[in-house]
């Protein structure tokens, strides 16, 4: 399952976002349970239950006696929440995650391969404008 595309939306006053129907259809193939976590670079990650469990297996193989794996594990799990997509295609984002990602009102929901990312619109624009000029250069380094 590969998520792709960029969608503009808003978060409502109750902290809910609507998952775009194209992404929601892919999620529904695996159920309606999702996991929302603190992402990297001030965004949120949304995983299906199956993908979240796969990520957990990888994380759980890390050594808890080493500093960086231990720190990452703590931060990842403490910032993870289980959610469910309602009949209107909405999912509640916990306040802790809204604050972490700096989400105000306008958001960008983007497909990112095995996960979906949720960004505050301004944070997304800043990230995109900073890194898009290097897109070709980065691709040469990682796709050799």
What does this 3D model show about the protein?
By secondary structure, the protein is an alpha+beta fold. The chain is globular. The strands form two sheets. A six-stranded antiparallel sheet has the order 1-7-8-4-3-5. Strands 2-6 form a two-stranded antiparallel sheet. It has helices at about 20-30, 50-60, 65-80, 95-100, 120-130, 135-140, and strands at about 5-10, 15-20, 35-40, 45-50, 80-85, 90, 105-110, 115-120. It has one domain (about 5-140): Transcriptional regulator MraZ domain (Chemotaxis protein chec, 3-Layer(aba) Sandwich).
- Give the class-level CATH name: Alpha Beta
Structural class assignment: alpha+beta
* C-alpha termini separation: 24 Å
Strand line-up of the largest beta sheet:
1-7-8-4-3-5
Task: Give the CATH topology.
Answer: Chemotaxis protein chec
Order of helices and strands: EEHEEHHEEHEEHH
Oligomer: single chain
Arithmetic mean pLDDT = 94
Going by CATH, the architecture would be 3-Layer(aba) Sandwich
Percent helix? 40-55%
Shape: globular
**Low-pLDDT windows of residues:** none
Major pleated sheet: 6 strands, antiparallel
Strand content: 25-35%
Radius of gyration: 16 Å
């Amino acid at each position: 399952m590969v998520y792709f595309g960029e969608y503009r939306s808003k978060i409502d006053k109750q902290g809910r976002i609507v998952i775009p129907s194209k992404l929601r259809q892919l999620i529904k193939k695996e159920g309606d349970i999702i996991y929302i976590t603190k992402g990297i670079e001030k965004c949120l990650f949304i995983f299906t239950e199956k993908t979240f469990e796969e990520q957990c297996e990888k994380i759980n193989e890390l050594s808890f006696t080493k500093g960086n794996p231990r720190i990452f594990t703590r931060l990842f799990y403490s910032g993870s929440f289980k959610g469910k997509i309602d009949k209107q295609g909405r999912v509640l984002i916990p306040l802790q995650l809204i604050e972490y990602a700096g989400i105000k009102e306008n958001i960008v929901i983007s497909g990112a391969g095995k996960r979906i990312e949720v960004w505050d619109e301004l944070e997304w624009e800043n990230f995109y404008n900073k890194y898009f000029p290097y897109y070709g250069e980065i691709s040469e380094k990682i796709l050799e």
